[in-house]
Write a structure and sequence with these properties.
heterodimer; A: alpha+beta; PmbA/TldD fold; seven-stranded mixed β-sheet; six-stranded mixed β-sheet; 23 strands; 21% helix; B: alpha+beta; six-stranded antiparallel β-sheet; five-stranded mixed β-barrel; 19 strands
C-alpha cells in the first residue's frame, strides 16, 4: 500500500538529496525528481440541478535519469523511500546503470530552495467552498434559461485544480511552487424541430482564488445564448477554397495548431517540423509576429516556474515573419541545442516534461477588424473556433463553431459545419493582415506530456486562402 | 517490476472499519493499480524508456437521506481511505435527489467466463531491442521512409476490483501490450507523407510485429503518390477502423445516459424504430476475443455482456448503467463507469450485415477495384474530438485515403469528409470483404453513397 500524503512536499527535500546522490553515484549525467500533491474539485450543473460533485486528491513522483542524450523515466504514486529507490533503480537500469552504494562525489547537494509558493499557502482555503461554488454555477445555468430560447440542455461546469510541486535535480535545481487553475464552462443545446445547435464557452484563470466570485455569469450566459440563437437556423457552409477572417481570442487556435506545435523542440527531435533549419529565415507573412510566454498575469498558461524548476520567459517565436527560435525544455536543449525557455511542462508526475506552449499568440497589428472584413469579397468569418489538431507532417485542422459568410466586404448569414484544414508552411505566409484587438482565451492542449493548461490568442487576422471543409 | 498489488480482503476490512467509525453504512469502491513499461526509439537509438506504477480508488458513500457523494484518490493508505470516505460523505450533502445511483442488482451475478492468459512482462531492454529491430525493418522498406517519428512498444500488468457494503466482490487481473509504428516518408520536391499501424495483444511476445511493419510500410508508401481531389459528392468506402471511429463518435445514439440528458439524437421512443438500412446490424460485445484489455465487469460490478444495439436497421437496445436501467425499467447492461453521476459507454462494436436477410443484405461482395465510378476509400479519420457534433448528428473530418478510378488508386492530398450520421446510416450501399478484427471493434469495409468531400483541387 502507498504512503500517506505529506502535509507539505518541502518535508521531502532532505530525502531527495540521497536519491539524487545515489543516481549520480551510479553514473547518471543528471537525475531529476518531480514531486506533486494535488487537490481537485469538479462540479457539473444541468438545467437547475447540481448533478455531479467530484473531489479528488493525490500524490506522485516522477524520476528522470539522463545519460548522454538518452533518458529513462519512472513514475509512482507511492512516496515511501523504498519505492522511490526502486523507481530510481528501474530508471538507471533502463540506461544500463546500477547503484553501487557509494556516496557520489559528483553531486554537490541541492542549491538553496527557490520557493515560488511564497504567499500561495492559503490559496486552497481562499477558493469558494462547495456551497458557494455550486450556487454560482446554478446561477449560470439559470441565466442561460433567462437569456436563451429553444434551449433543450443547459450545462455549467467548474473545475478547480490545486497543485503543489517540488523539483529537485542533481545539478542543484531545487524549486517549489503552488499552482491554482480554475475553469468555468457554459454549454447549451438549442433545438427547434429539425434545427439543432450546440455551443459552449470556457473561461479559465491561473492563480486567482477569487475567480469564481468575480465571474461575470450574466455576460457569459448572454454570449452563449446569442451564439446559439444565431447558429440554430444556420445553413451548412459551402465547401471550397476561400479567404477567411478569424476572430480574436480563441481564433488563436489556428496558430497554436498550425505553427506553435511545430516550434516545440520535441518536433525538432522527431524530425517532424518543416522549420527545423529555418531560424533567421522568413516562414510567415511579414505581418505576423508571434510570441509564447508564461508571464501574463492570471492567464491560463502562466507559470511561476516550469515543471523543470525554471522560471518562464517571454519567447519571441516569429518576428515580422522571420523565425526567431523554438520552445525548449531540458531534453530539447540536450538533443537539439536550442536553449531552455522555461517551457518544460507535463500534465502530472506520470509524464516526463516536454517542450510545450504556455500563452501563445499572434501580436496585434495596425488594422481594425472591420478593415479585414471589408477586404474580402467572398469568404468565411470565423467568430468562434472549436478544437483542432496537427498531424505528423504538419497538416492541421480545426473546427469552426460559429461562422458567417463574408459577401462584398460585409458579414451576411451564419453558416455551420465548417472545418479549416491546411499545412503550416503554406498557411503562415497567407496571414496577411492583423487587427489591433489582441485578446487571449483559455484552453487545454493534449500532446506528448499529457493535457496541460494553455492560452491561445490573437487579434482578428485575415488568411488570404484556406481550405474550408463543409457540405 | 511490480510495485504493488490490490489486496481486496485488506481493502474491504479497512473500509468496513473506517466506514463504521464515520457512521457510514452504505458504500462502494472501485480500485485499480497497474505497472507499465514502454520504450520509444529514434533512428536506432533509445529515445525514451518509461516505467510507471499507478493506483487509484474511487469511493461512493450514501448518506442517511439516500444521497450519494464520491471522492477519488491515488493514496491507498489507511489515512487516504479515511480521507476519501470523509470527502465522499461531505460531497453526499450535494447529491442529486432526482437521480441517485444504487447498487447494481447484478453486482453479485456470475461473470461470463473469459479466456485471457496473464503474461510475464519482458525486460525493458528486450522491449527496446524489439522496437529497434522493428524500426530498422520499417526504414528499410522504401527509400523515401526516412523516420518513424511516432513509435512505441508498451506492456501493462493491471488489476481492478469492485467492492460494496452489500457483499459484492469483483476482482480481475489483466496483461496487455501494444505496438505502434507511424512512419514519415518524403520524396524530392514532394510533400512529406505519413502512415502507420497499431497492434495489441495480451503480452509483448504475442504482438504481430511483422504484420504491424507490413501495414505501416504499405500505408506510408501508398500515400507517396498523391494528388488533390476535386470538391464534390462521392461514394465512399470506409475502412473498418474509420467506420468504427465514426460509429464510436456517435455512440450517444445508443447511450441511455445521453438520452435521459437530452443530448442524444435518440429518445425514449426510439427503441423499435428504424435507424439505418435494413441490412445493418450493430452489437456491443466487450467479451469479443479481439477486445484486448476487456473487463469482465463494469464500474458498478455488472457483468460485461454482448448487447444488440441495431438489428436489421432497427434500434433494439440502449447501453445502460444501474440508474438509467432503472429509469427505463430494464436491467443494467454492463456499460457503466463509476461516479456520483454514472457515465455510460460502449466497449467493443461488432458491425456487419444482418444475418437473417430480412430487408435484404445490401450489395455484399462489392469490389472497389471494379467500380466504374470514382470511389473515395477512407482509410482513417482525424480530429474526431473537434469535427463531430454528436448532439446534432453532424461531422466534418479530415481523412487519409485514396481516390480509386478505373482500377487505379491515388492518395488524396489534404481533404475532409462531411455529412450527417443519420444520412450515413441510411445511405449504406453494402459491405465489402470479411469483417476485420481491430482494436476498437469488428467491421468489414462499408460503402456509403453521396458523402461530401472537400479537397484543394
Amino acid at each position: 500500500m502507498t504512503s500517506t500524503i505529506p502535509s507539505s512536499l518541502l518535508e521531502c527535500s532532505t530525502r531527495l538529496e540521497s536519491l539524487l546522490a545515489a543516481g549520480r553515484g551510479a553514473g547518471a549525467d543528471l537525475v531529476e525528481v518531480f514531486l506533486e500533491r494535488t487537490d481537485h474539485l469538479g462540479l457539473l450543473a444541468e438545467q437547475d440541478t447540481l448533478t455531479s460533485v467530484s473531489p479528488a486528491f493525490g500524490i506522485g513522483a516522477g524520476i528522470r535519469v539522463f545519460l548522454g542524450s538518452r533518458d529513462g523515466f519512472v513514475s509512482t504514486n507511492d512516496l515511501s523511500d523504498a519505492t522511490l529507490f526502486r523507481a530510481l533503480d528501474q530508471a538507471l537500469g533502463m540506461l544500463g546503470l546500477q547503484r553501487n552504494g557509494a556516496a557520489s562525489p559528483r553531486f554537490e547537494g541541492l542549491q538553496p530552495l527557490r520557493d515560488f509558493a511564497g504567499d500561495k499557502g492559503d490559496w486552497l482555503q481562499r477558493c469558494p467552498l462547495l456551497q458557494e461554488a455550486s450556487s454560482r454555477l446554478l446561477e449560470g445555468t439559470d441565466l442561460l434559461q433567462r437569456h436563451g430560447r429553444h434551449l433543450q440542455v443547459r450545462r455549467g461546469s467548474y473545475a478547480r485544480d490545486w497543485q503543489e510541486v517540488l523539483v529537485a535535480a542533481s545539478d542543484g535545481t531545487h524549486a517549489h511552487d503552488i499552482r491554482l487553475h480554475q475553469s468555468l464552462g457554459l454549454n447549451v443545446l438549442a433545438a427547434d424541430g429539425d434545427h439543432r445547435a450546440s455551443l459552449g464557452r470556457r473561461y479559465g484563470t491561473t492563480d486567482q482564488p477569487d475567480e469564481l466570485r468575480l465571474w461575470d455569469a450574466d455576460a457569459a450566459a448572454r454570449d452563449v445564448c446569442d451564439s446559439a440563437g444565431t447558429m440554430l437556423y444556420a445553413d451548412y457552409v459551402e465547401a471550397g477554397q476561400m479567404p477567411a477572417v478569424l476572430a480574436n481570442r480563441f481564433g488563436g487556435v489556428i496558430f497554436h495548431e498550425a505553427c506553435g506545435h511545430l516550434l516545440e523542440t520535441t518536433q525538432v527531435e522527431r524530425g517532424t517540423t518543416p522549420f527545423a533549419e529555418q531560424v533567421g529565415q522568413p516562414i510567415a507573412h511579414q505581418a505576423v509576429t508571434a510570441i509564447d510566454e508564461g508571464l501574463s498575469s492570471g492567464a491560463f498558461g502562466s507559470l511561476s516556474m516550469d515543471d523543470e524548476g525554471m522560471e518562464p520567459q517571454r519567447t519571441v517565436l516569429i518576428e515580422n515573419g522571420v523565425l526567431q527560435g523554438f520552445l525548449s525544455d531540458r531534453a530539447g536543449e540536450l538533443r537539439t541545442g536550442h536553449p531552455r525557455t522555461g517551457s518544460g511542462r507535463r500534465q502530472n508526475h506520470g509524464f516526463a516534461a516536454a517542450s510545450r506552449m504556455r500563452n501563445t499568440y499572434i501580436a496585434a497589428g495596425p488594422h481594425s477588424p472591420e478593415q479585414l472584413i471589408a477586404s474580402v469579397d467572398r469568404g468565411l468569418y470565423c467568430k468562434s473556433m472549436g478544437g483542432g489538431s496537427v498531424g505528423p507532417t504538419g497538416q492541421f485542422n480545426f473546427a469552426v463553431e460559429e461562422g458567417y459568410l463574408i459577401e462584398n466586404g460585409a458579414l451576411t448569414r451564419p453558416v455551420k459545419g465548417a472545418t479549416l484544414i491546411g499545412e503550416a508552411k503554406e498557411v503562415m505566409p497567407r496571414i496577411s493582415m492583423c487587427a489591433n484587438d489582441l485578446e487571449l482565451a483559455a484552453g487545454f492542449c493534449g500532446s506528448v506530456s499529457g493535457s496541460i493548461f494553455v492560452t491561445v490568442g490573437q487579434p482578428h487576422i485575415k488568411v488570404d486562402s484556406i481550405t474550408v471543409g463543409g457540405r | 517490476m511490480a510495485f504493488s498489488t490490490l489486496n481486496a480482503d485488506q481493502l474491504r476490512g479497512d473500509l468496513e472499519r473506517l466506514a463504521r467509525e464515520q457512521g457510514i453504512s452504505q458504500w462502494d469502491l472501485g480500485a485499480s493499480c497497474s505497472t507499465d513499461t514502454s520504450v520509444q526509439v529514434d533512428r536506432g537509438e533509445a529515445k525514451q524508456m518509461k516505467g510507471a506504477q499507478r493506483s487509484a480508488i474511487t469511493v461512493r458513500v450514501w448518506n442517511s437521506d439516500g444521497l450519494v457523494g464520491i471522492t477519488s484518490t491515488s493514496d491507498l493508505s489507511e489515512s487516504g481511505l479515511a480521507r476519501a470516505l470523509g470527502g465522499a460523505r461531505d460531497a453526499s450533502a450535494y447529491g442529486n435527489a432526482a437521480d441517485t445511483p444504487a447498487f447494481s442488482p447484478l453486482a453479485t451475478a456470475p461473470l461470463h467466463p473469459r479466456e485471457q492468459r496473464l503474461h510475464d512482462p519482458q525486460t525493458i531492454l528486450q522491449l527496446l531491442d524489439t522496437l529497434k529491430d522493428a524500426e530498422r525493418q520499417l526504414l528499410s522498406r522504401h527509400g523515401a521512409i526516412n523516420t518513424v517519428p511516432y513509435n512505441g512498444l508498451a506492456q501493462r500488468s493491471s488489476e481492478r476490483l469492485y467492492l460494496n457494503s452489500a457483499g459484492a466482490n469483483r476482482h480481475e487481473a489483466l496483461t496487455t501490450a501494444s505496438l505502434y509504428l507511424y512512419a514519415r516518408a518524403e520524396e524530392a520536391g514532394r510533400k512529406p507523407r505519413s502512415g502507420g499501424a497499431v497492434r495489441l495483444a495480451h503480452g509483448a511476445g504475442e504482438l504481430d510485429i511483422a504484420g504491424c511493419i507490413d501495414e505501416a510500410a504499405e500505408r506510408t508508401i501508398s500515400h507517396l503518390d498523391y494528388a488533390p481531389i476535386t470538391t464534390g459528392h462521392y461514394t465512399c468506402v470506409f475502412s473498418p477502423e474509420a467506420f468504427l471511429d465514426l460509429i464510436g463518435a456517435f455512440s450517444s445514439l445508443f447511450n441511455a445516459r445521453a438520452v435521459l440528458d437530452g443530448v442524444s439524437l435518440s429518445n425514449r421512443e426510439s427503441i423499435g424504430q428504424k435507424l439505418a438500412v435494413p441490412f445493418l446490424n450493430i452489437h456491443d460485445n466487450g467479451l469479443h476475443p479481439g477486445n484486448i484489455g476487456a473487463s469482465s465487469f463494469d464500474g458498478e460490478g455488472t457483468p460485461t455482456a454482448r448487447l444488440s444495439l441495431v438489428e436489421g436497421g432497427v434500434l433494439r437496445h440502449f447501453l445502460h448503467s444501474e440508474a438509467t436501467a432503472r429509469a427505463f425499467g430494464v436491467s443494467p447492461t454492463g456499460h457503466a463507469g463509476m461516479g456520483a453521476k454514472v457515465s455510460v459507454g460502449p466497449d467493443y462494436f461488432e458491425v456487419g450485415p444482418a444475418g437473417d436477410g430480412a430487408g435484404g443484405c445490401g450489395q455484399l461482395g462489392l469490389d472497389l477495384n471494379r467500380s466504374s465510378e470514382p470511389i473515395v476509400l477512407i482509410d482513417s479519420l482525424s480530429a474526431l474530438h473537434a469535427g463531430v457534433k454528436a448532439s446534432q448528428g453532424a461531422f466534418s473530418l479530415p481523412f487519409d485515403g485514396w481516390l480509386i478510378q478505373g482500377g487505379e488508386r491515388r492518395s488524396v492530398e489534404a481533404a475532409t469528409v462531411a455529412g450527417d450520421i443519420r444520412t450515413v446510416l441510411n445511405n449504406l450501399v453494402g459491405f465489402e470483404g470479411q469483417p476485420r478484427v481491430t482494436p476498437d471493434g469488428v467491421c468489414p469495409h462499408v460503402w456509403v453513397q453521396g458523402l461530401s468531400i472537400t479537397g484543394e483541387a
